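Milestone 3.1: sequence recovery, worked example.
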């Protein structure tokens, strides 16, 4: 197998958990800025600054100025607009978070290269006096140190190894940002003959995919009808992905009903079993709720905070992806937005949020929301189609390319619906392909399949 240098950006940051340390605080009755180190590693750290309005009236804007010692620089920041002058970094609102109500707070984050902590801090021009911790955070966890060498060829998993969330991105075990690209199965209950050794060889070696999303419906004849049978089928596909060096995204495909809590007990059982069996593998990512709908973000978050500990008990550092409100539209399809997640994120580390789109249905307003959200929270497009949200209809080539450009620019991974021969426009193969076993090359592809195969082979 050739390939895979494509997944690497040279950015050398990797993350080891460290406890937070508050550095600056002003007395009550003022705007305050609190600096916390949320992650640190040998040659850098992730900082978070919380700006609190401790006055009795709203403030319309804010400005935080941090001075860093020689040898430490900030390359990336989110939830803020950053400007640099010499060793002073000025952080102002990102746009939507300028106003802070009385007694409320907002926060922003950044990645520092170098271990020096800020030597001075101003908030709205006034000194952030208070305690200034002189030294780097003391309690770095025992996570393995990132290796500096990364294989330049091999399978996606050989090149990238263990994944972890780094700031708003996904990183490989060498500290580089990774954008994983691949395909989603259709419902396993309907298309088992599409996921064979032959079809997955083609996905790995002919399509050059990085990722197989394993979509296990819960209703509609799925998991609820035969829990042990579907668990075994998912595990079998995890093994097939592993054998080919692909990442395996295990999708608990709730859809109707849209409240994931309806399936909470099933989710706990399923993820307990799958995470216990696969804990030692580097390539398994857990997507715990495909498309919540008709349910509030608070209820989704509640579900996530009950399911994630079940996974963590077996596999403490696996990446977990949480579905978002409105069919994983970041809330947009139900008249909301990503702000409800940004202001109330899931209380767990190594978590990303799912965004789904169908190119012929979801246009500029959805792209704008993804761009806005990606500045603050880690996103993964765990499902998208080139057609309408029905899964059928004509391929929207222009819309699909607009999405690819955005996702590539933001380094957001994606999985296409579907690697199947369903009689619908979103399927990659023509009907009858799976039973015939004719997966390789271009002869069996639909227009959508050809678009995706070209895209994955080219990147
Ligand atoms: C669709 C399938 C279709 C099936 C239907 C109901 O393509 O064959 O009959 O589900 O199960 C989603 C869902 C995904 C949908 C897909 C297309 O995650 O299950 O698959 N879609 O409608 N969200 C937006 C679109």
């Amino acid at each position: 197998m050739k390939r895979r240098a494509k997944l690497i950006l040279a950015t050398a940051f990797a993350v080891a958990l460290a406890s937070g340390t508050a550095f600056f605080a002003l007395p009550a009755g003022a705007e305050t800025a609190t600096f916390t180190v949320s992650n640190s590693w040998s040659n850098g750290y992730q900082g978070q600054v919380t700006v609190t309005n401790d006055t009795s009236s709203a403030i319309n804007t804010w400005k935080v100025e941090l001075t860093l010692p020689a040898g430490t620089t900030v390359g990336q920041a989110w939830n803020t607009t950053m400007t640099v002058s010499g060793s002073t970094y000025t952080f102002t609102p990102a746009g939507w978070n300028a106003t802070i109500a009385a007694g409320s707070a907002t926060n922003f984050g950044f990645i520092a290269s170098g271990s020096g902590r800020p030597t001075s801090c101003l908030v709205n021009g006034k000194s952030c006096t208070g305690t200034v911790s002189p030294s780097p955070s003391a309690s770095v966890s025992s996570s393995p140190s990132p290796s500096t060498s990364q294989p330049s060829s091999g399978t996606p998993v050989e090149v990238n190894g263990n994944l972890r969330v780094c700031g708003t991105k996904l990183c490989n075990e060498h500290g580089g940002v990774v954008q994983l690209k691949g395909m989603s199965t259709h419902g396993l209950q309907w298309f088992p003959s599409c996921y064979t050794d032959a079809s997955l060889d083609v996905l790995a070696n002919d399509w050059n995919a990085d990722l197989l999303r394993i979509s296990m419906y819960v209703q509609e004849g799925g998991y609820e009808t035969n829990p042990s049978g579907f668990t075994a089928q998912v595990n079998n596909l995890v093994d097939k992905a592993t054998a080919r060096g692909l990442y395996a995204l295990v999708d608990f495909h709730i859809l109707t009903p849209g409240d994931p809590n309806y399936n909470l007990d099933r989710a706990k059982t399923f993820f307990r079993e799958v995470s216990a069996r696969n804990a030692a593998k580097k390539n398994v990512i857990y997507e715990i709720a495909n498309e919540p709908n008709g349910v509030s973000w608070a209820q989704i978050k509640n579900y996530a905070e009950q399911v994630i500990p079940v996974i963590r008990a077996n596999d403490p550092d696996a990446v977990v992806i949480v579905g978002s409100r409105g069919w994983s539209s970041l809330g947009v399809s139900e008249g909301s937005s990503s702000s409800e997640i940004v202001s109330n994120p899931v209380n767990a580390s190594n978590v990303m949020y799912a965004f789904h789109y169908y190119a012929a249905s979801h246009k500029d307003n959805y792209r704008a929301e993804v761009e806005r959200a990606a500045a603050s929270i880690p996103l993964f497009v765990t499902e998208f189609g080139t057609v309408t949200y029905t899964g059928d209809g004509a391929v929207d080539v222009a819309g699909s390319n607009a999405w690819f450009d955005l996702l590539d620019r933001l380094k957001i991974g994606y999985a296409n619906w579907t690697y199947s021969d369903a009689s619908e426009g979103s399927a990659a193969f023509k009907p009858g392909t799976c039973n015939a076993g004719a997966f390789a090359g271009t002869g069996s592809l639909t227009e959508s399949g050809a678009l995706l195969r070209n895209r994955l082979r080219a990147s």
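Residues 156-458 form a domain with the TIM Barrel fold (CATH 3.20.20.80). Residues 170 and 258 are 27 Å apart (CA to CA).
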